[in-house]
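User: What would this chain look like folded?
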Amino acid sequence: MIPTTKAPQIILPSVNINGEPMPALQKVRVACYIRVSTDNPEQEDSYEAQDRYFSKLLPSRFDWDSAGVYADYGISGTKKENRISLNRLLRHCEQGRIDRVICKSISRLSRNTADTVEIIRKLKTFGVTCYFEKEELDTGDMKSEFILTTLAAIAQEESRTISENLHWSMEKYSPRGDVPNIRCYGYELSDEFETTKTGYKRRKVIIVPNEAEIVKRIFMLYVDGRNIAEITRILNGEKVPAPDAKCGWMHERISFILKNERYCGDVLTRKSYTEDFLTHKSKRNNGEIQQYYIKNHHPAIISRELFQKAQKRRKKDISARKRREYRYSSRLVCEHCGKNYASIRERYTIFWKCNSAMLNNGMCICNAEKISQVMLDLMLINAVDARFPISNELLAKLESTQDLDFMERDRSIMKKQITIAEMELENAVATYEELQNRLEVLQMRQEIFGEKFNFSDYLAQCDEMRNNITALEKEKSALESELENKEKHWALLERDYAIRDELISFMKTSSETELRKRLPLYVKALALSIIVHDTTHLTVYWFDETETDINL
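Assistant: Here's the prediction, encoded as structure tokens.
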């Protein structure tokens, strides 16, 4: 007798992750997650097997409401940032669409221990439980807390080891807030000393009134909408004394003031660190080592609220500056060779040129001309005006696209349609073969026994079935092609989900003039791809699966 393996029992908790009782008749919205890290045939079979297994499992329980199968194919599990379906799953859990997640094993969720713990903890904060079949681990079961604690301890130990290697030269006083005062514009150091509660001595800092007023004005101008270049021109135009009288006010000086937390009385420690103790080479700290933010360290020149408003504006400006440089990256496609365009800077002008046309290897692969970013911006705005003449129409379309976020549901429906088409095709082929067999038998009887038969009906039925088979094959092929195209479209939409959200928020608070001015910065929220025919002719393929041809 061949031993049979018992399928693991998936136990639904009677209480949610917060310990609150769940209604007895309430269906639990369950989603499944699949990840396969390579594209060899064995892994492909594993992917298809998991897909079939979960697709059958979800509708099999009367107390479940299927939330879909989320699948990442051919993607490594070491970095969750690159996994589209996992990120969708987490977002949908946060939005309250899912109550429970099922996964084959912990390794399918992530091979990075820290990421695994982070994901599980994040799901718990959303009130979502997770079940791993291989390990029979249920995050809704308190008995599994020990395993989760062990995983967390492992991740914490990994972080501690890295931290110890990086923090060996950290100053011992920073965690306690014992940081010296420094001389910066608006402040000067006193000859007097002060002693902190821990016994640390440092020189007192004194506000310089006339410089402090200029600092306040810089922050107010910036928060009120003036950019750094405008502030520089204003101060130099009014002959306001600068820290460096010879050079006057410069962009770098204004930028340094606007990002310096010391002006609101706080201190951020360890902004840089020594990367190599032998060379004493200093490197900007981007999170490599521990930093400490100390509030109320010294007298403030501006309020913390004003400083935070300035930082919020700076963040938007930095994001916008990056978009100005790379706004069309991965969007422009050359009509002649199919390659993407890349940005090049010539003096103060940004151009975009086909990658093949830029090759300097002695071979002329593509003759596409470069196109200026100014011209691209103009054609994009014209294309938006042609496709979405009313801004409210564009806003409604964007919100509808964000709300109708049901990739998994639509994929499941289309796969069922393909399965039905396959079954109908198999039945049609079987019927045709049966007719062919009958026809052959009758022909043999006529040849051997001289019996007379009318073959016209059988021949007509065979022709009809052949036509039917051809039609079903085309239907099945069309459905498979449509699903493939939909998969690509969904992946592109998911890639740009965050920037569409940002554009929606911007449109709700900006005027028509502001929107028109900044619209090219949000090209990736609108266009999935742009075919470049020549320097004055584009075809834009929009997020809503429509297209617009623009020829200036």
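The longest strand covers residues 64-73. If you want, I can go into more detail on any region.
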